[in-house]
Amino acid sequence: MSRRKKKHPQHANHERWMVSYADFVTLLFAFFVVMFATANADRGKASAVAAAVRSALDQGNVSNVVRALSEITGKTSQPKETTAPPDKDQSARKDARALSELLPSMELLEKELKPEIQRGTVELHLEARGLAISFKQAALFQSGSDELLVTAVQTIGRVGSALLKVPNAVRVEGHTDSLPISNFRFRSNWDLSAARAISVLDLLTVKFSVPRSRMSVGGYADVAPVAENDTDAGRARNRRVDVVILSQLGTAAEPSRKVVSANP
Predict the structure, then answer these.
(1) So what's the architecture of 103-252 in CATH?
(2) Segment (H or E) for 124
(3) pLDDT tens for each residue of 154-205
(4) CA-atom Rg of the chain in angstroms
(5) DSSP state of 85
(6) 8 Å CB contact between 60 and 131
(7) pTM (predicted TM-score)
(8) What residues have CB less than 8 Å from 172, skipping those under 6 apart?
(9) Domains of the chain: which residue ranges?
(10) 3-state class (DSSP) for residue 116
(11) Measured between alpha carbons, how far is 122 from 174 in angstroms, rounded to an integer?
(12) Under 8 Å between Cβ of 243 and 170
């Protein structure tokens, strides 16, 4: 008779827990990937907008900024309950359109005023109220004077040529630093800032034929600074004349230019 072989008992598998542990780690990894992607979705959009703004400041390519603003205010992939009301959305689109209408003027002036911009005597700013062409005082006037320098006439003439190509209203603004002035010609910085703005306006209207009906003038003294007044560099930036091509938003804040009939 043949002997039956004894069956040896199977050894217990003590490593089965590793399968469950690996599945758990995989699921945990997937969870963190999803969380990371969700957290960085808006951050990517913000980075794109920031890059567009930096490009606009460095290269004057403002169309990218307007396009980014339009996409943010005009498009939403998944509308949520926390989205802005329709009236705010519509207002944002209006602001974007108001800026985009001035892009051709800005591109033209960037080319026309390129030498002055590179020297730092002229700056261009696209703002909600319009396109501001900012002249430093040293480029237009001697200290304490409202008489335009001969070298400033040609530069202002190039601005006048650009103004004739757009229908927008224009406001000329005079600004000073905070150091008080009082002499036989000007009693205060209010007089000086207004007188300088008027000198630029007169040159634009008389010599370069910009219609007076589109123009306005303002003197702001030192109440609208763009830099601190406690340094020489800051005060130099604040002494300026701004020629502002008003957007639709800026024009809406102006007094009505329509003639109202006195007859009933």
Answers:
(1) 2-Layer Sandwich (3.30)
(2) strand 122-127
(3) 999 999 999 999 889 999 999 999 999 988 899 999 999 999 999 999 999 9
(4) 32
(5) P
(6) no
(7) 0.65
(8) 197, 198, 200, 201, 204, 215, 216, 217, 218, 241, 242, 243, 244
(9) 18-77+84-99, 103-252
(10) helix
(11) 14
(12) yes
